[in-house]
Design goal:
The protein is of the alpha+beta class. It has one domain. It is 45% helix and 25% strand. It is built from four helices and seven strands, in the order H-H-H-E-E-E-E-E-E-H-E. The chain has a four-stranded antiparallel β-sheet. Helix 1 packs antiparallel against helix 3. The radius of gyration is 29 Å and the shape is elongated.
């Protein structure tokens, strides 16, 4: 009698064991699919961040060149607008720089435009991965590309004294510098300007 009951118990637990094993296997596959999607998303975000920063850095270099030209032109205080970052950011090669950095991250730029955050100019970029999420238990992931967006802004790092006269020797100090920089519009050499990274900071918008 005891032997018969033991066999009956074993027979009734076998389907439960198979059912639980199936659930665990499905959960493992679902977790793997989620991990695949997260990995693709992270890749897209890295590409978008890099592309936006590259565009803003390229524009920063062009802003610095524009500042130098404005000072050399000697048109009154117009060059102060460049120093303050009040001039419109140049289109220039910014989008090309974004394309290049996205490609280095196995992605491409699918959206690009000038943007502004808290009064600071910059660029908004959307990047799409060249690769897909991959095969998984979720239908369609084998053809699904990850997308992400990022914005990078350009922020002036230098300030003038209240009594500064833009038509005379002007002294200004940049963040993080212990020494001031003097610019004389009547005796100006572009090499007198600090590096672009000293004049303007570039960072991702939060």
């Amino acid at each position: 009698m005891t032997l018969v009951r033991l066999r009956d118990d074993q027979g009734s637990t076998l389907p439960l064991y198979i059912w639980l094993t199936g659930i665990l296997l499905f959960a493992a596959l679902a977790f793997f699919a989620f991990a695949q999607g997260a990995s693709a998303r992270n890749g897209a975000q890295s590409a978008a961040d890099a592309a936006a920063l590259a565009a803003a850095q390229e524009a920063r270099d062009e802003l610095t060149e524009g500042l130098g030209r404005a000072i050399a032109a000697g048109d009154g205080d117009e060059w102060l607008d460049w120093l303050d970052g009040d001039m419109a950011i140049p289109a220039g090669e910014a989008e090309g720089a974004a394309d290049e950095l996205a490609a280095e991250n196995d992605s491409n730029v699918t959206g690009f435009m000038p943007d502004e955050v808290n009064g600071y100019p910059g660029y908004w970029v959307e990047a799409t991965t060249n690769y897909t999420v991959g095969d998984s238990i979720i239908p369609g992931t084998e053809t699904m590309h990850a997308k992400a967006r990022a914005t990078a802004v350009i922020k002036p790092r230098c300030g003038l004294g209240e009594s500064a006269d833009p038509e005379k020797v002007v002294e200004f100090i940049c963040d993080g510098d212990d020494e001031s920089t003097e610019i004389d519009p009547d005796d100006f050499d572009p090499e007198d300007l600090p590096d672009a990274s000293d004049l303007f900071a570039v960072h991702l918008a939060k």
